[in-house]
């Protein structure tokens, strides 16, 4: 069986002599997780699925996995991490596996041909599959430089994540006024990391965090959000609350960003960074697989299309969700590959948690 997992930053394929499976993913990890351990467990997840002769093919635009959970600190404090600490060599990680069991393909998925059971890559190379798992995850506006300075909260789909990280670090380090849009976990952590740098370096710079609601970290317990506000205030971060950004444009003449809020407020800065909601990595996915917002439609068994991670039409899109989805997809794939409806498949379902833990 050949199993292919597609991600825009990572794609993997699993094959058995009589069957093939393919997974296509995006610039995150194959399961949407950002951790080295999770990356390694993706392969083990198939091997453990009673498919001992399966062949896995992983397809990704880059040979290195971006540990983007650490991106707020990586971008705010360039000297804290070396690139090899947050960019993990994927082929090296799987080097101990037999080539008959695992195959790595560096490339970007362009289309899925369901009739012929192949994933076509940019450049027209074709990867055949018996089973295809879409694990392409999500990106962000700032990662792609849309209405924001380019700041890679996720891996770049062109495979040039390191170059983008280094350019962003330089931009952030030299900016005198930084406006951060979005007071969720990434925005709050990034604002705190930046303010910590300025406090230690005693640099006269201004950091503003914009929250569309009357507090920060609305995904968690209110007490946690209040504590975060206290810390940000102590670090000198200005927090604009209760107004939403309606437009952000870059004025080339002044080299400054003009940010307009829905209450009529107009702000200006030489660096503007969006940390708001995820954007699905779905350019290669057929339209009939997607809901009206571009996420892959799945039921409680994570089918009819095999999918896992940020790309599925469920919230929250967190690393914790991967751990909950994994055994469900595993049981489904195991039963389907054997042509059975096992009790384990029927009993295991995924029901997303409504909020992050407090």
From TrEMBL:
UniProt entry keywords in alphabetical sequence: FAD, Flavoprotein, Oxidoreductase
Protein name as catalogued: FAD/NAD(P)-binding domain-containing protein
GO MF annotation list: electron-transferring-flavoprotein dehydrogenase activity; flavin adenine dinucleotide binding
Alphabetical list of InterPro entries matching this protein: FAD/NAD-bd_sf, FAD/NAD-binding_dom
Domain FAD/NAD(P)-binding: 54-321
SUPFAM superfamilies, per database record: FAD/NAD(P)-binding domain
Family according to the record: Belongs to the FAD-dependent oxidoreductase family.
PANTHER family: APOPTOSIS-INDUCING FACTOR 1, FERROPTOSIS SUPPRESSOR PROTEIN 1
Gene3D superfamilies documented for this protein: 3.50.50.100
UniProt organism field: Aureobasidium melanogenum (strain CBS 110374) (Aureobasidium pullulans var. melanogenum)
GO cellular component: cytoplasm
